[in-house]
Amino acid sequence: MSEFQSKIKTIEWVKTQTGGHSLMVDQTKIPYAFEKVEIKTLKSMYDAIKTMIVRGAPAIGIAGAHGCALFALELLSKYAPTEDLWQNITHVTTENLDENKRNSFFEELEDGFNYLNSSRPTAVNLSWAIGEQKKVVENSKNLALKDVCVNLINNAIKLENEDIEINKKIGDFGADVVPKGAGILTHCNAGALATVGYGTALGVVRSAFARDNTIKVFADETRPRGQGAKITTFELIKDGIPVTLITDGMCSYFMRNKMIDMVVVGADRIAANGDTANKIGTSTVAIAAKYYNIPFYVAAPKSTIDLSIKSGNDIIIELRDEDEVTMVNGKRICAEGVNIINPSFDITDNTLIAGIITEYGIFKPENLKNIENC
Ligand code: MRU
Predict the structure, then answer these.
(1) pLDDT band at residue 95 using 50, 70 and 90 as cut-offs
(2) 278 Cα: distance to centroid of ligand 1 (angstroms)
(3) Among this protein's residues, is 268 annotated catalytic?
(4) How far apart are alpha carbons 37 and 34 in whole angstroms?
(5) Average pLDDT of the segment spanning 265-277
(6) Which residues, judged by CB distance below 6 Å to any ligand atom, belong to the binding site of ligand 1?
(7) Which secondary-structure segment (H or E) carries 370?
(8) Does pLDDT of 339 surpass 90?
């Protein structure tokens, strides 16, 4: 394992006496700088997700879990301040706080969780992780407020650690379908920096490279925000995995010239029928891959699969600021007055997907519902 890959934790909880805070890689700075920022409040977590300091579905999920714990700590200092959160954990209600105040704490907490959930709409991991924290609150309703905070922090740390383990399993299942010496095309960034570590699509690449160091990656630049050019190439170069950067319109050229043997991408939300929302441009790659008979795989954890929705038609697509399209490096690249529509994700039809690589194995889209019992 390379130094970068073994050390990087895109987002982690830092424990302190009063509870702690979230520490995350600022992805808006990559590849120019590799810096971490401390996030200490619900509002700053909302902004970090919205402005894409943290991005990528699984990383956003953990950011959501951290944000819930941060807000509980903010409310604790308002309702029942404590000097040392980790002392005298009782697991029963011991505090001398009237019932109305306890109820207000829980009401405000719920409002804060819902506010955080509204920061980005497409990646289901955010609402999944906040849902996991809501369960913790539900099971902690009879505890002292500080114990509620302890439980939320511990659950956030648990989800954080599980994410890396899940990605390694995805990587190992995925490596089984990578042909020897393959050229692998990926779109956007579904690497260590889109998760807590290791990555989903790039987890497959990492596991495959560990078995066969003759594989090579083609990375789409991923307009408008350039996650492929800025982040995927950064990660792969650090890990010594050969990577060629191509622009988004080039994939057909490389497919026709037999330089691509498979495609693997991440996902932001997968419907019960396997339709997959991922970064804008993904479905174009999938359509080209089908034409050239190249297998197209999606790599994602179970938490990205939303069995509550039947098809991709039910997935809300985030529309982002028009500046992302009109401006490059702070300079306008088009005439004033032009119309802009900037959808951040598109839906890849299930008929284009050879398999969905999860921590429980590889599912054909038509069998995806079976993951419910895993
Ligand atoms: O808008 P982003 O950068 O958060 O979008 C990320 C993607 O589309 C990724 O490819 C997807 O989340 C998978 S992340 C493992």
Answers:
(1) confident
(2) 6
(3) yes
(4) 10
(5) 98
(6) 55-58, 123, 188, 190, 194-195, 200, 227, 266-268, 278-279, 344
(7) none
(8) yes
